[in-house]
Amino acid sequence: MKFGLMSANLMGNVEGAAAGELAQKAEEVGFHSIWAVEHAVVPLEYASTYPYDDGGRLFKGASQLDHSDPLIWLAFAAAATTKIRLATGILILPQRNPLIAAKEIASLDRLSNGRLDLGIGVGWLREEFEALGVPFEARGARTDEYLRALKVLWSETEAEFHGNFVDFAPVYCQPKPTQQPIPILVGGHSDRAAQRAGELGDVFFPAERPIETLVSLHSLARQHAEKSGRDPSKIELWTSSNGDRAHLDQLVEAGVTQVMVPSRPPEQLEELYSELIADYDKEAAA
Fold it and tell me: Which domain holds residue 162?
């Protein structure tokens, strides 16, 4: 099982020196990946329910945290490192113009020599969508279509797509990404998210959930992969954890192949995580 360092693009790490130091130390310690999260804006008042907290709210002060754009932050991290994977977790895909996103994502993959893992999700904060002028309704269907359009733009020299949410005549979209294809990591914790992962993704990564829920959702994702004519065994399961060993043992048993753990200052990474990585990630420890 591999380890990723999540939410690395927050607070002090919005500064260049700190971002570079964190990325370099994560690579040195043996992390497989480093992750950047996204919110373009957080409205001062919102009625939407945050799905990853029992109280339905972001933790106090979260709305005002410094929070870099994930693609720009990962490009900076790419320049400071050579091998660590660079992951968005998540990019709120339906908020972005898919043609501009295709260019930005492919550019990052080229600049990093093919190290990008594209984590996407549909978003939960209606008020953020409203501030951006993007419809909140049908964001799931919009996400599915955007993923299909991205794959066309990345793989075809003369790309053309006609759908309900994105429609364009033949265009050139350069550069193409180094990876063919860029791995698609589908975030979420619903049956619909599992279906999206099975039909269009390479990895399903729900946030931390009871083990039985993770197993059930992963099974559902693989069922949808098989229905879509894809190899279900290739749909991996990733999730997050606080690093508790008993929990990690359960995740290994459940078939999880990568775990994202909380980011820490560079000087704490080795102390907190080097032993975990050595014990669970035999490839990194070798």
Answer: 2-193+203-217+235-285
